[in-house]
User: Which sequence fits this backbone?
């Protein structure tokens, strides 16, 4: 995967746990021994951030023996990461690596299950995630959802053009909006321009106005299906996006509607992966 998380962010993860001393290992004089560190899946999962786990281990003086890459699917009981080194350094790495792996393997697995279910009903559907990730976690979060088969909806405000009601508060009616849309298309020729709506009638009005895509927010699946058919009759190439309140419990309903894109924040939140740590004394 073409992805980069800078060392200083990994060092923050280490610092949160150590800062600056492992008192137990120091008093037990574990620097007299060598040890092996391994992580084993307690259930089937999609891996994420094993590359960053390798880098944390190296920062802490360990030699990484082997690991499976981000995006790999591993079975229950499978060892997917191994490192070795001085026992006190193994203990320094132990929880920092485990926290990273459990959180983001959990997110990657949740994403994989969501995308797989959506594509069971619509093999061409795109699943994308919102900007509502936990503050300060964007890079590993995006890595996790990509590992699971989804993509970010918008990495930031400069990436796409999407009009919300909060923007329309500064537009004086539909006639001015038509002018604004014309100006936006002239000044952003390579960009699609979308608008979010929360009902069928407003959405159809904006289809006729010439928007490139319509984002339906918190609209029930039956209305979404009706909207897709009506919008495509007017503009066959328009893209329809469904967003708001879409979870693993109702994704099947929305995938069946014919929308091209599902936007969700649900993949960010849920159970961590369950990963067993194995630490063994070696010669």
Assistant:
């Amino acid at each position: 995967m073409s992805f980069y998380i800078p060392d200083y962010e990994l060092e923050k993860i280490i610092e949160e746990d150590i800062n600056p001393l492992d008192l137990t290992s120091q008093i037990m004089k574990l620097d007299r021994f060598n040890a092996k560190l391994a992580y084993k899946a307690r259930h089937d999962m999609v891996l994420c951030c094993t590359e960053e786990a390798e880098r944390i281990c190296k920062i802490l003086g360990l030699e990484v023996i082997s690991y499976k890459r981000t995006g790999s699917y591993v079975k229950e009981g499978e060892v997917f990461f191994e490192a070795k080194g001085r026992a006190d350094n193994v203990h320094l790495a132990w929880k920092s690596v485990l926290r990273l792996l459990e959180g983001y393997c959990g997110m990657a697995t949740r994403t994989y299950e969501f995308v797989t279910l959506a594509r069971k009903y619509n093999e061409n559907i795109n699943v994308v995630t919102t900007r509502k990730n936990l503050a300060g976690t964007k890079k590993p979060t995006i890595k996790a959802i990509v590992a699971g088969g989804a993509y970010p909806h918008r990495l930031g405000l400069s990436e796409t053009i999407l009009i919300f009601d909060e923007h329309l508060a500064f537009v004086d009616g539909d006639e001015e909006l038509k002018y604004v849309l014309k100006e936006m298309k002239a000044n952003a020729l390579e960009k699609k321009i979308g608008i979010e709506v929360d009902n069928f009638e407003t959405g159809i009005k904006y289809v006729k106005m010439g928007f490139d895509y319509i984002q339906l927010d918190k609209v029930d699946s039956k209305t979404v299906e009706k909207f897709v058919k009506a919008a495509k009759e007017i503009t066959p190439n328009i893209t329809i996006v469904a967003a708001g309140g879409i979870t693993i419990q109702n994704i099947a309903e929305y995938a069946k509607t014919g929308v091209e894109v599902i936007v969700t924040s649900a993949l960010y939140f849920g159970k961590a992966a369950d990963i067993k740590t194995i630490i063994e004394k070696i010669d």
Notes: The two ends are 35 Å apart (CA to CA).
